[in-house]
Design goal:
Layout lengths: L6 E15 L4 H4 L9 E15 L3 E6 L5 H9 L6 E6 L3 E4 L12 H11 L4 H15 L14 H14 L4 E5 L7 H16 L3 E5 L3 H7 L2 E6 L2 E6 L1 H12 L6 H8 L22 E3 L4 E9 L8 E3 L3 E10 L6 E8 L5 E6 H4 L11 E9 L5 E13 L2 E17 L18 H5 L1
Bound molecules: adenosine-5'-triphosphate and magnesium ion.
Length: 430
């Protein structure tokens, strides 16, 4: 849903400029300052545009301070925009910062009524849903206590229960779920699915990339107040992780990687290998090319099908277009829905790695035992350079090669924990 037709949320060229006063009292004095400016301006949102359609679950990722909460507050209406347009159609229920919307002196139940009223429900409608809300929150007798006595987890349980049970058209959640325990989180995500099944729309901010690949059909990536990417969650997550790791995943960097010379001296190319995924996400500042990867049994040739527990070798081949003091080769194994199963690098596994000169080719061989359950797996590979405390990404190729693992049919899951089983004392005596 990108074109804005029949959208539930529409944001056009949204900007937010905060005024930052040096002293709190300057906010007051400004009115009498006769043209003198007692504040400096900070642009927290810079021309953000997107549209969300009915029934979409959209995850918003971005580093701290990138503008996510500012965006949600404007969508919900608790904060005004400096310019641009925002339209949200239908009843919006939101969980923003912890504390917003609840009166600390009131009991949980009183706050349920207060909150539901803010969301447009009358007393009878709220009473009809009260049992469901309290069951969902599951905080026992605490509902009769003032919410100022709540733990942050209890608080979120109650706030989410209200938001999810008032039947909103749009549910907006800002990181709140992070404070709930895992069991409560999974209950929330089940409720998300139910809501989406009924055509509701969900927008949520999280720092959990796993939540985004699991639960969202689409993701947005914020950086420095701008929406820098909007698309398929796995791709967006990859780019977000790169930002977190200090890489520059800007369009220029991606172009630089594309512009690498395409004819290595070595005969093989990753693009020609069986199992190569054209949908790979590739970026890096250039200067080296990770041009080939081969997955094999020790001594064998490229092969994509293995049994659980087998020993494999992953051979990575890189070529250097400039001198590189401390090259690092890295590998990640992920499930198709983006869960990282394992990751490691030559920096961790080798005491040292020879520097490379312009035109050099280097090959590293990772030996790994496949303690994996049955299924498909994706390899993400990288060639980087260590520079002091920094790691500079030269050529990263995420989700680039797919292989299969076959396991005995009796086990399930992504890991092979090599269970053994014996009959215990009680069983013996029978
Ligand atoms: N009331 C405010 N006055 C001035 N600056 C603000 C205000 N609120 C937020 N900012 C600034 O705007 C920027 C965006 O903040 P915002 O809270 O939207 O980021 P965020 O993406 O939600 O970050 P986080 O992941 O830490 O929650 C930050 O640099 C922040 O310091
Ligand atoms: Mg925030």
């Amino acid at each position: 849903m990108r074109d804005g037709s029949a959208s539930v949320i529409e944001v056009v060229d949204l900007r937010k400029i905060y005024r930052i006063y040096r002293r709190p009292q300057d906010r007051l004095f400004q009115a009498f300052a006769r043209g003198k400016q007692l504040y400096r301006e900070f642009q927290a949102l810079d021309g953000v545009s997107f549209a969300v359609g009915r029934g979409e679950v959209v995850g918003i990722l971005g580093r701290n301070g990138s503008g996510k909460s500012t965006l949600l507050q404007i969508l919900v209406g608790t904060l005004g925009a400096s310019s641009g347009q925002v339209a949200v159609r239908g009843r919006v229920a939101a969980l923003l910062e912890l504390g917003a919307g609840f009166n600390p002196e009131f009991s949980g139940i009183e706050n349920v009524f207060l909150n539901a009223a803010i969301l447009g429900l009358d007393r009878a409608e709220t009473e009809a849903r009260l049992a469901e809300i309290l069951a969902f929150a599951d905080i026992g007798d605490f509902v009769h206590q003032p919410v100022k006595t709540y733990s942050s987890g209890m608080y979120v349980r109650l706030a989410f229960a209200v938001a999810a049970c008032v039947d909103p058209e749009v549910l907006i959640v800002d990181e709140a779920l992070a404070v709930g325990d895992v069991k409560f989180q999974s209950k929330c995500f089940r409720r998300f699915e139910e809501l989406v099944g009924r055509g509701k729309t969900i927008l949520f901010v999280t720092h959990s990339v796993e939540q985004v690949v699991r639960h969202c059909g689409r993701a947005l990536l914020m950086e420095g107040g701008r929406l820098i990417d909007d698309g398929e969650p796995r791709q967006i997550v990859n780019r977000y992780v790169d930002l977190l790791l200090g890489g520059d995943a800007s369009a220029e960097a991606a172009v630089a990687a594309d512009a690498l010379p395409c004819v290595p001296r070595h005969a093989e190319r990753l693009e020609l290998r069986a199992g190569y995924c054209e949908t790979e996400y590739r970026w890096g500042e250039g200067g080296a090319e990770l041009f080939d990867a081969e997955l094999r049994r020790p001594g064998g040739g490229h092969e994509l099908s293995y049994r659980t527990g087998e020993m494999i070798e992953l051979v990575l081949r890189g070529r250097f277009l400039r001198a590189c003091h401390r090259p690092i080769f890295g590998v990640y194994v992920k499930t198709p829905d983006g869960i990282t199963v394992y990751g490691n690098s030559s920096r961790n596994l080798l005491r040292e790695f020879p520097a490379a000169d312009v035109g050099d080719e280097r090959e590293v061989v990772f030996g790994m035992r496949l303690h994996l359950g049955a299924g498909s797996y994706l390899l993400s590979l990288g060639l980087a350079e260590e520079e002091g405390a920094d790691v500079r990404a030269l050529d990263r190729r995420y989700d680039v090669l797919q292989f299969e693992v076959h396991a005995p049919p009796a086990a399930v899951g992504i890991a092979d924990l090599q269970a053994v089983c014996r009959i215990g004392v009680n069983g013996d005596e029978k």
